[in-house]
Known about the structure:
The chain is α+β, with helices and mostly antiparallel strands.
Amino acid sequence: MLDFAIFPVGIFLTIIVGSSCIFITKQQHVRFIETFGKYSRTATAGLSFKLPWPIQIASGNYSLQILQIERDVSVKSSDNAFVVVPIRVQYQVAEQAANKAFYLLEDAETQVAAYVINQVRSTAAGLDFNELFQSKAAFEDDVEETLTDKLSNYGFRIVNVLVDDPQPSEELKSAFDRVIAAKRLKEAATNEGEAVKIKAVLEAEAQKEAMIKKAEGYAQFREIVAEGNAQALQKFVGETGLSAKTAIAFFAQTNAMEALRDAASDGGKTVLVTDDSMPKSLGGLYMDAEDDRLQQP
């Protein structure tokens, strides 16, 4: 009777013990087998066996999937510019070293993020502000290479490092705005000065051209007058038989008389004429004309 009572208990215990020897690991996960609390081996995806509890125990499923850390890291460049570098680091546990990641790091994500932030700041410190923008690829490669060397000791591998455009701090943005505003004011002042300069040059050139044209007109006018006077003098001398000197004196006297007439043509004017202001008196001209006739053959 006692044997029949023990038999079900034995079956129950067998099932319990047997079930503790079998476990399943999910795809892209691993489980760690510990023998009396000491790491023994790593079980991969699928059905696995182990010694019954409490000799061996299996940990929970530990992911091998690619994880991502996103951080906005405040950094200081080599030229003392404070910027925020948005960075995304994709990483995963290396299957062959998964036990290191599981046992060496208590809070893997937080500790990996700390390495990422420290490395980003260290790399940025060797670059100036422009290089942070212009050399993003080199920046990413440097961060990825250094993180790979450090985190491989803890069973992690870096899949990819993505760096977005650095964002200047508010103080730096304000400083840039002031620089740009000053530059625009300078450009505006320069352009305005150039416009004034060009206008002055054009006005001077226009005045120069006008004066040249005016001088040319005066020269042509004097040339025409001279030619006309020469022809008139030649004709006058030829027809009257007077000398050129007497003819010139006659023309001068005529011009003087016409000038007096024009000056006195409007009322309310007084014209003062002195003896030395007239080229020659009419009597003098008459005597010169008589002398010229007497000298003719």
